[in-house]
Amino acid sequence: MQRARLAPFFMTLILFFEQLLNGVQLGVMLFLMAAGLTLVLGIMNLVNLAHGSLYMVGAYLTIAAAQWTGSYWLGVLLGLAGALVVGMIVEVVTLRALYARDHLDQVLATFGLILFFNELVAMIWGRASLYSSLPAWLQGHVELLPGSIYPVYRLVIIAVGLAVAALLWYVVTRTRLGMLIRAGASNRTMVAALGVNIRLLYTVVFGFGAALAGLAGLMAGPIYSVQPGMGELILIQVFVVIVIGGIGSIRGALVGALIVGIVDTLGRAFLKPLLGSVISPPAAEAAGPALASMLIYLLMAVVLAVRPAGLFPARG
Amino acid sequence: MLEVRNLTKRFGALLASDGIDFDVREGETHAVIGPNGAGKTTFISQLAGNLVPDAGRIVFAGEDITRLSAPRRARKGLGRSFQITSVYPEFTALENVALAVQAQSGHSFRLWRPARSDRSLIEPARKVLNDVGLSSREGVLAANLAHGEQRQLEVAMALATTPRLLLLDEPMAGMGIEESQRMIDFLGSLKRSRITMVLVEHDMDAVFRLADRISVLVYGRVAATDVPDKIRRNDEVRRAYLGEDA
Amino acid sequence: MLSRRLVLWSVFVVLLLALPPVVVALGQPFYIDLVRRIMIFAIAAVSLNLILGYGGMVSFGHAAYLGIGAYAAGILAFYGLASGWLHFGAAIAASALVALAIGSVSIRTSGVYFIMITLAFTQMLYYLGISLALFGGDDGMRLKTRSRFPLLDLGDSLHFYYLVLVLLVAAVYLTHRIVSSRFGMVLRAAKSNEARSRAIGFSPYAYRLLAFTIAGAMGGLAGALLANHTNYLTPDFMHWTRSGEIMFMVILGGMGTAAGPVAGAFALLFVEELLARWTEHWQVILGPLLILSVIFFKRGLAGMFYKPDA
Fold first, then answer.
1. Residues 20 to 59 of B: which have CB under 8 A from any C CB?
2. What is the bridge-based pairing of β-strands B55-60 and B165-169?
3. ipTM topping 0.85
4. Which of A55, B63, B177, C269 is least surrounded by CB atoms within 10 angstroms?
């Protein structure tokens, strides 16, 4: 067969290319989460640990809606809308009381939200992983390079993510809302002093973030496991992204997300074999996965040592 | 004692400090005045070590401290009081001053003996409180002190660090007439004990009574440095202060 | 000098001393286990209170030290070393070292960054624990042999209970001495007003780092105790939700007080216990309870008994 004649080096190159795409796909999803979170943090000075819960809600509601209506697209639509609505409710009921409080209180209160949502989801759908199905046209593979077939769905995720990034770029740099957002991220009190309706701005920003998180969640459904606590797993990586990228900066979120996504994915794929060629294979077997999982945190520590405020902090 | 050459600081397009030359002789009280927005706070912040200048040098007692952090400058004898009261609200007046004494008594890696009953901290603190006139209020939480008393505490804390040079940033800010008089008298007694002071103030009465020399800051530049009488008659200064008492 | 505070503490300790014989007589020995578990977490809370309540450092990664302490004991036991002194000593030393490492990087930052970084590092250790297949990975492992001490048998429920009680009292007392000392004053001053502290000549970094290390070491001790209590250790010991729970104990009980973390540990774990008996989905109730307590209950429980340490 043609493949058997390809040199091993070429195959590694293909593997590298595929993993690189995986990394970009993860990065794009991290970006969707990070964009909302970093704006909320930069503009409203609110640490929202429950952002991961909105991701989870997006995934669960989409699956439930798709099952209920029998249509993938309706599922997506309802899931997204549901995440938005849940986000709004959370904002009005809980977060409004926290804007004026210090970060510690915000952390603890949103931590309470996490417990609540995780358990609520477990009560309704159980603790086992849910299965999320894809319509036929999204299930296929595509041959990008000779010998490399790649899932269509992951490419779609990358496309959607980049489209959202482009949309955000347009909104932030070309519209009045975007101007308010940028101003708010670098000087909150000034924006309030200028007479802008802060309440409305906050709600819009938060809603935006919630929708993005829900989108990330519903896209994640088919490829990652949908279970209680899934939000927190990705949330910590999102924190790393924000620390690296800088608070309040969408550009930082994108750059940080891509870096984290790529480093993490490539690390998990290649660190063990790389180590195996340097030290003994059994040692690499043990150390490889351990080191790979620590990679992005070490990266974060290094970035912080050099740039304590991240790569592109909104407040100079 | 203090020599500043070409101090420059930019915030984006705003030139807050424009090549400031400034010096203070030992035992002198050198006042810094200027209209709002002249850059007095920026200037003091750079002297104290809270802002790093873009260019220029600061030499204190023969040593270049331009790049030294604020705590290290304080340990070298640069004391500072803040324009907006900055004390420890949940500690008593005595504890506040004791902390300042502690900061100057070597390292604080002592983890066992209680600080509250440490006489080597309490006695000097009591003395400073007495000098400032707050003895009767030593057990009161700083948050519960009257505004004027808090300003006195500010100065007391700066004094308790046994400074070689005192940076006083508007010590009379927000004080009534009587309190201001008391503070002026107190600063006068400090002056008589030959403590070197840099005094930033709006209260012209205080400035002209206390200052040996006055520097006028306008738009980040030193417009004039001279003895009070000459400053009073200086045209440029009058222009800068049009509408204010000079 | 019998201050009100001392009286209250004495009463509390006496109650705890008396608890085992009383509950045994009432036929409910289970409470010995429960209170022992609460006291172990109280030690962890006391250690966090040092840096959070008094030092103002919002460390979301304190559970890491519980895990390190537990694994230190567990790994030594795995290799057949059973000496309690070794277990506890290693737990304390390892936690102190890791705290020193994490702290040296994290304490240079502040505010939100500090929270996120401590959280991230804890998660890193959690993943490390999961990937150690030799020690059970995801599932964790049994504590092969309990920590052996000359006169004590930690397998004996009563012995162990009193040991934990003694250690809890020691932890509270030690923390009390530390926060009242010159060192503690720098820590508290830096929390109260950092700009002022720097202006009078304090450089808070070294003090904060030492406090962070001490807190980590104490947390490690709690971890070793916990491993002995559950007889099992898993990476979940250092899961970040654990960190959140311990933070809650500190806040709920009242930050910056000696009694706060202890009161918080008792309150939170008793509430969890009660709720858990009622429904397996107790977290769905606990979550909103926590939210409400944060929004409405600012000074904490200890604030009801006396004013915070001035």
1. 48, 50
2. unpaired
3. yes
4. B177
